[in-house]
Structure formats: structure tokens, C-alpha cells
Amino acid sequence: MPTDQDLKEMVKERYGVIANQSKQRNQSSCCGSTCGCSDAEYSDMAEDYSKLPGYVREADLGLGCGLPTEFAQMKPGDVVVDLGSGAGNDCFVARSIVGEKGRVIGIDMTEAMIEKATDTAKKLGFTNVEFRLGDIENLPVADGTADVVVSNCVMNLVPDKNKAFGETFRILRSGGHFSIADIVLDGELPDNLRREAALYAGCVSGAVKRSEYLDVIRNAGFRNITVQKERKTEIPDEILTQAMTEPQLQEFKQNQIGIFSITVYADKP
After folding, report:
1. Residue 122's domain spans which residues?
2. pLDDT of 253
3. d(CA 214, CA 218)
4. Which of 44, 51, 111, 171 is deepest in the core (most CB within 10 A)?
5. What confidence score (pLDDT) does residue 182 get?
6. What one-character-per-residue DSSP string does 214-230 give?
7. What is the DSSP string of the chain?
8. Are 58 and 120 contacting, i.e. CB atoms less than 8 angstroms apart?
9. Cβ–Cβ under 8 Å, residues 157 and 11
10. How many structural domains compose the chain?
11. pLDDT digits (tens, 9 = 90+) for 117-129
12. Residue 193 sits in a domain of what CATH number?
């Protein structure tokens, strides 16, 4: 099995490639990169941002699995931190809500994503949006900085989710909250599917059970944990068969393992 560092390096490499691809290419690939997947469409996870205020087309790479900014209860003047900010999609939407008196900080561990997002912010003349290179397990953000934390389909890629939510708790001020979209499971993924690197980078095999995910949030100290939205995600057979034999695929279907996109709210006491 790959180590935590192996997984991080794999994600960095894949998302470095993704940063320079079109949204259409990313949405038609099982892992959003040049992984040699089938031509089967796998865009069931991403949701449409185009009608949200502040939407910037160049920043939308079609990589999310929800619309956390729509549920994040941000207000003018807030400081918002986006974990795994990519090309800046959620950051620019957040900026339109917090306004000139607010501030938005995007964190991503992929250099190409930081460069792309920073270039877009400069072109748009935004002075209150910044992007920092960093690891979600060790965020380059001071204690109690954020009023709101958002994240879109990224926490499932983090090997140590306890550290990730611990860091989220640390950077939030007292009374602050988060809205995070992510992939969770009902049931257990087969080991061979968990080992499939392409599906890990595509947010599937890095996912954990819904109950485990919510327990991690609770154990980090958060309260008022609420699932704001959920949606079942189907993976095409053409993708699953890359990690499974036909008998294993049939067993997978019979076990009715559910893969869900959920958007979760929680606040810090």
C-alpha cells in the first residue's frame, strides 16, 4: 500500500497536470487528468457554478463535488479560507460575497494551481484574494484567522483527516464555521478499488464511511454538525473495470455500496 507521502505526491503530480487542462477535459476523465482512463464521462460529481455571483470561468476546472460557497453563510467583511483552492473557483465566488472589506485566502499544495489562481486574481485586479502554497495537514494560516472555511472535494484526498479537521478547527475563530463538500461512502470499498491510484486522485478511493467522516469532525471539537445537501454519485462500469474483474464488479453492485457527495456544516464553539 502507498504511504501517506506517496499519496500526496501522486495528488500533486496529477493536479499539476489538471491545472493546465480545460474544464471539459477534466470533467470527461475519471480522475481529472491524463491517467489513460476510458472515454466514459465521469462528470456526475461536479456541479454548475456558472450562475453564482463572482463566477470566473477561467478558474472553474470542473473538479468539485458540490457548491459549498452556496451554503457557507458568508457575509460582507468575513475572512474566508478555502482548503484545496485549486484554480480559485470558490475563492472568487466567496470574494463576491465578503466584498472589498472581506478577505479570501486559498490554500493548495500544487504549485501550478497557485500560479494559475494568482495570475487570474492579478488580471482581475483583486487585492483581497491571496493564494498560499501549503498542506492541509499543516496549514500556513495563523490561529483564529477565519470566520468561514470552505472546501470542495478535497478532504477525501488528505491521508490524515484527523489532522486536516484539527487544522480547520485551529484556524477558525471562536464562533466561526465551515461548509465543506466531500465524497463519503455507505459501505466498504473493495481493497483493489482503494488501491486504484486514478480513483484516489479522482476522490473516490480516498473517501471514508459517512459515519467515520462525521466522527472525525466531531472529535476535532466541532458542534452543530449538519449535512446541508447530499447526492448519490454513480461511477461508470468502464471506469470500475479498470480496477476490478467482472465477478468483482458484480459483487460490488450487489453489495450496494453508496458513493455520496455531501456538503457538511459545523461550527467552532
Report:
1. 4-267
2. 75
3. 6
4. 171
5. 92
6. HHHHHHTT-EEEEEEEE
7. ---HHHHHHHHHHHHHHHTTS-HHHHHTSSSSSSS---S----SS----TTSTT--GGG--S--SS-HHHHS---TT-EEEEET-TTSHHHHHHHHHH-TTSEEEEEES-HHHHHHHHHHHHHHT-SSEEEEE-BTTB-SS-TT-EEEEEEES-GGG-S-HHHHHHHHHHHEEEEEEEEEEEEEEES---HHHHT-HHHHHTTSTT-EEHHHHHHHHHHTT-EEEEEEEEEE----HHHHTTT--HHHHHHHHHTT-EEEEEEEEEE--
8. yes
9. yes
10. 1
11. 999 999 999 999 9
12. 3.40.50.150
Whether 2 shows a pLDDT value over 70: the answer reads no
The pLDDT of residue 38 is 37
Question: How high is the pLDDT of residue 44?
Answer: 53
C-alpha cell of residue 172: 477558525
